[in-house]
């Protein structure tokens, strides 16, 4: 095969490969820096943006779209009388997605038996999951709650919350 024919074939295959590459689209990106307390006796729906929205909308056009959902935040839990932790659920249209549908330990108290107490600390934590949705407008929400084994519940809070939804 001649050198010029090889170049033409090479350019053709490069164009085909380039055309078949998938590009990620960010459907939603939000951040909220302010501290948010988590009620000890119930689930708390977190505010997700500077406007204090508890649900944010995004749209998809395909009949079936797989999404990657990434969330990070600073989490603190303290004043516990036992080992307690913050459970976080990422919700799409009111349904907990992927691993977050189960008990996920986003941050927890630290057991200090010698001091007879459980201390809290600020930690930066991340949680990722995926979801498949149909065409239409969907709503993202994040729910948090304190899970505890003792007679007294902790105080907890979230700050520096950041979420991306990628298609």
Shape: elongated
Number of helices: 1
Largest sheet: 6 strands, antiparallel
Unreliable residue stretches: 3-21
Percent of residues in helices: 10-25%
Give the mean pLDDT.
Answer: 79
Brief rundown of the structure:
It contains one helix and 13 strands, in the order αβββββββββββββ. With 167 residues, it is mainly beta.
How are the elements arranged and paired?
Layout: H1 3-20, E1 26-32, E2 36-38, E3 44-45, E4 56-60, E5 65-78, E6 84-92, E7 95-96, E8 105-108, E9 110-112, E10 117-119, E11 122-133, E12 136-148, E13 155-166
Antiparallel strand pairs: 1-13, 2-13, 3-12, 4-12, 5-11, 5-13, 6-7, 6-8, 6-12, 9-10
What do you see in this structure?
The structure is a single chain. The chain is mainly beta and 167 residues long. Helix content is 11%, strand content 53%. Strands 3, 4, 6, 7, 8 and 12 form a six-stranded antiparallel β-sheet that branches. Strands 1, 2, 5, 11 and 13 form a five-stranded antiparallel β-sheet that branches. A two-stranded antiparallel ribbon has the order 9-10. A hairpin with a 4-residue loop joins strand 9 (110-112) and strand 10 (117-119).
Can you give keywords for this protein?
167 residues; six-stranded antiparallel sheet; 11% helix; 53% strand; elongated
